[in-house]
Specification:
There is one protein chain. It contains twelve helices and 13 strands. It is an alpha/beta fold. The protein has one domain (about 1-345): Aldolase class I (TIM Barrel), CATH 3.20.20.70. Strand 5 (about 100-105) and strand 6 form a beta hairpin. The protein starts with a helix and ends with a helix.
């Protein structure tokens, strides 16, 4: 039923401004889930995987960005994802970048966004998490993705990440540290060797203190960009191992426009996601795997548009996958398609 509804609704949604469609779809999803309509589509068969010490019901997760404030957790969780990652959240509320700031590129099955971490701040975010049935009933894996405010100087970025980590820690299955969005000025500078070492050192110390305080160890993963070379991957992998970070999510959106040259909206500023980032992401995953081996798990995200793409992420070295842009183009059926493909892998 949900697949039929999505196939009927998609032409209308794609006729709207992308952000307008987004703001229309999520409340409708929440309502459909409350009425039990999303259950009619069925969920993927159980295919549990243990990653970062967490048991994931299946290896197909929702990537951060779709639900920045955690206002739609229950609706999204009803679609059969093995995990839901929400955010990115910042310490203080911020409106993000000026509109329009999302652009579809259907010819390339891509999306360019320059949202800029628009969200209601970490206190409202935590309130939404606490209010969700998914959290209250401990119904599944919930990742909470944290970032920094746009007006926080880059040399003070760690303060924002530490503030958010302390706030979200009690409610998270795992926490993702997003240093790779291209839409917050200078953020990717934190992927540099010395900057990353300093940040991860502080985050690890805080994580261990919080684990002792709450009597529960919550894994921390780092989300990185696809626009890095082999030497940068080597430096990032070394830092992850030195500081005993629990996982890495590869990758965020790309600044490259090679795959969309000449297309309508192809030159818009922002991060490009969807099919054009697929091979860039896979390259980073392979490089990470060669550096990390089995010492640290990789979650693969970027350009998964069908089940075969999910298999390619696992073949490249990922243990789990996440969806976002493919989910926008294909709807809920993609969750089951990917889950089925990974059961056969």
């Amino acid at each position: 039923m949900s697949d039929i509804l999505y196939s009927l609704a998609r032409p209308l949604l794609f006729s709207l401004d992308a952000e307008q469609a987004h703001n229309l779809t999520l409340p409708l999803l929440r309502r459909a889930a409350a009425l039990g309509l999303t259950r009619l589509a069925g969920k993927p068969a159980p295919d549990p995987r243990t990653v970062m010490g967490i048991r994931f019901p299946n290896p197909v997760g929702l990537a951060a960005g779709l639900d920045k404030d955690g206002a739609y957790i229950d609706g999204l969780a009803s679609l059969g994802f093995g995990s839901i990652e929400i955010g990115t959240v910042t310490p203080r509320p911020q409106g993000g970048n000026p509109k329009p700031r999302i652009f579809r590129l259907p010819q390339a099955q891509g999306i360019i966004n320059r949202m800029g971490f628009n969200n209601g701040g970490v206190d409202a975010f935590v309130g939404n998490v606490q209010a969700s049935r998914f959290y209250q009933e401990k119904a599944g894996v919930l990742g909470l993705n944290i970032g920094k405010n746009a007006d926080t100087p880059i040399e003070r970025a760690a303060d924002d990440y530490l503030h958010c980590l302390r706030k979200v820690y009690p409610y998270a299955s795992y926490v993702t540290v997003n240093i790779s969005s291209p839409n917050t000025k200078n953020l990717r500078q934190l992927q540099g060797e010395s900057e990353l070492d300093a940040l991860l050192s502080q985050l690890k110390d805080a994580q261990l203190r919080l684990a002792d305080q709450h009597k529960r160890y919550v894994p921390v993963a780092l989300k990185i960009a696809p626009d890095i070379d082999a030497e940068q991957v080597r430096n990032i992998a070394g830092a992850l191992l030195r500081h005993k970070i629990d996982g890495v999510i590869a990758t965020n959106t790309t600044l490259s426009r090679t795959a969309v040259q000449g297309m309508r909206h192809g030159e818009e500023a922002g991060g490009l996601s969807g099919a054009p980032v697929f091979e860039l992401s896979n390259t980073v995953i392979r490089l990470l795997k060669s550096e990390l081996g089995d010492a640290l798990p990789i979650i693969g995200v970027g350009g998964i548009m069908r089940g075969e793409d999910a298999r390619a992420k696992i073949a490249a070295g990922a243990q789990l996958v996440q969806l976002y842009t493919g989910f926008i183009y294909a709807g809920p059926a993609l969750v089951r398609d990917c889950a089925a493909a990974l059961r056969q892998a």
